[in-house]
Amino acid sequence: MGIVDEDVARVRDATDFVAVASQFAQLKRVGTRWVGLCPFHGEKTPSLSINADQKLFYCFGCQAKGDVITFVRDVEHLDFVGAVEWLAAKAGITIRYTESAQGEGRRERARLVEAMEAAVEWYHQRLLTAPDAGPARRYLRDRGFDGDIVRRYRLGWAPDEWDALARALRLPDAVGEPTGLVRVRRGRQVDFFRRRILFPIFDVQGAPVSFGGRVLPGGDPPKYLNTAETKLYTKSKVLYGLNWSKDEVVRADEVILCEGYTDVIGFASAGLPRAVAPCGTALTEDHVRLLRRFASKVVLAFDPDAAGRTAAERFYAWERAHEIEVRVADLPAGQDPGELARTDPEALRRAVVDAQPFLGFRIERVLAAADLSAPEGRARAAESAMALIAEHPSELVRDQYVMQVADRCRVDADRLRSGAAGRGGPSKPSHRTHPHRGGAAPAAPERRRSRPRESKEVLALRLAVDAVAGPAIVPLLHEVLFRDPLHGAALRALLESGGDLRAALDGADPEAAELLQRLAVEEPTGDPRDLRRALLRDAANRCCEELRREAVAAGDAQGYVPAITWLKAQIEAISPDARPSQAVEDQLLAWLADRAEEKG
Ligand code: ZN
């Protein structure tokens, strides 16, 4: 299935790119463009730029680029059709489909989701009504999961039978196996889940993609069993609960990250419906990237160090790389949020409100473990704390903690600062060249802001792709004005499309398209008439040189004199101080164009 071209264009036209992109990045208006932190790579300095008129974006850090449809496709992990549908739904536009082979992947996904949906419902009904689900119902009730919760989260029960689901749903093998719901053994379908309470897991859009299955006490290990990865489900990219919590997460600009399904549900019951959890896996950078699209603050509702030192450092690196603020909720020892939600919901809410910044939490732990009664202990603690502080990217933040540590360890703050500087912190020049960041991302925005020594050709092209300036300048330009072949190709694409940037991007070769796309998100500067005249002068001067060389080569200096003399007069006539009529310029351009054409 594809979508009728006309409808794609209608959706694009009706869409406010800035409003859409603002859901995923905070945008700031700079001139006629909008800039913000790129949702496609981690960064601290905005590299994403959007041209709202042309509905195009470009990232100077990771070179992500495209139009509003590409943006939604990539940011929501959809395909083209899905992205258009997503935008159409927002714009209230009904779209029409065409039949085509490329829709096969889409149809398959729809079949798998439909099967998952049927399974969710079947398991759910089984939990609600089947006699054999009695122990599961009791177990859930004892843990505070009443009927409302069971229905809201669509919890299910997989009975202790080999093929109860397979017999009930009668899915073809080609659907049942790829969902991970059943496995085919000697030609027979066998259920994947048996004798487990099931937590259906949904993607951000709310489509069921997998299950987490919890064993009842006394059942066979493991305690939790998850659907294997399937076409629908990549565990490093799905967070349990995000489909329910995303609106609240965006509203609060904060997401609570916990370890399990029951914790997510516990937080919601305690009045904090903005928790998510990874599904049977450690948190990954993909998860962080996903979360960053919804909020800039993350509250960890588990001890980051219980998962080991590397886990903590990874968080810290992500905090830096993705510019998120990570706080840690100090939960009473030995209590998970799911339990606390039931026994003392107020304590759970307080732990979230009082969450400490990640750096503060770590420093506090170092200090708490140290012997601050002895000078040696205080010095060692100060040194360890400074090592943590040096990793923080903000000088202001570093300084706040330096003062705090100095105070607690009774050390002079200036001494701490100079000591840290001697070890390579706190300015930490190594951040800039951190190997996995490539060093390229931070440099790019600088380049964009200062734009040193830009050629007139680039300035003219930037005006040419602008929605406002373009229609005025494009008809005045000609390839002969551009010395750089890439610039020439970019202009040719624009001229051939009658100045329609979208058509030009489709028609241009990839390199020229990339250039046009990038220029479109940059603020145009310069006066079109002056630029055209300057380009014309340069082109005429180049032509003069050529004529001279030809004259030498032909050994006929005399024969070239009239042409060279005429050209020099024209160049004089369009000098910056002269006030030439456009007719003079047009005539010169036509002459240069004719000559270029004759030469082929
Ligand atoms: Zn980027």
Structure summary:
By secondary structure, this protein is of the alpha+beta class. The strands form five sheets. The protein has a six-stranded mixed sheet with strand order 14-16-15-17-18-19, with helices on both faces. It starts with a strand and ends with a helix.
Structure characteristics:
6-stranded mixed sheet, 19 strands, DNA Primase, Chain A, Dna Topoisomerase Vi A Subunit, Chain: A, domain 2, flat, 5-stranded antiparallel sheet, alpha+beta, DNA primase DNAg catalytic core, N-terminal domain, 600 residues, 5 domains, binds zinc ion
What report would you give on this structure?
It contains 28 helices and 19 strands. It has 600 residues and is of the alpha+beta class. It folds into 5 domains: 5-91, DNA Primase, Chain A; 106-233, DNA primase DNAg catalytic core, N-terminal domain (Alpha-Beta Complex); 237-354, Dna Topoisomerase Vi A Subunit, Chain: A, domain 2 (3-Layer(aba) Sandwich), CATH 3.40.1360; 361-439; 456-599. It has a 6-stranded mixed β-sheet, sandwiched between helices. A 5-stranded antiparallel β-sheet has the order 2-3-4-5-6. Helix 11 links the parallel strand 15 (254-257) and strand 16. Helix 3 packs across helix 4 (80-91), helix 21 (456-464) packs parallel to helix 23 and helix 23 packs across helix 25 (510-520). The longest helix is centred in the C-terminal third of the chain and has 27 residues, at 528-554. It is flat. Residues 38, 40-41, 47, 59, 61-62, 64 line the site of zinc ion.
What ligands does this structure carry? zinc ion
Number of strands: 19
Major beta-sheet overview: 6 strands, mixed
Distance between the termini: 45 Å
> Which word captures the global form?
flat
The proportion of residues in beta strands is: 5-15%
Number of domains: 5
Structural class based on helices, strands and sheet pairing:
alpha+beta
- Major beta sheet, strand line-up: 14-16-15-17-18-19
Please give the radius of gyration in angstroms: 32 Å
Task: Determine the number of helices (DSSP H or I, runs of at least 4 residues).
Answer: 28
Amount of helix: 40-55%
Low-confidence residue ranges: 421-452
User: On the 0-100 scale, what is the average pLDDT?
Assistant: 86
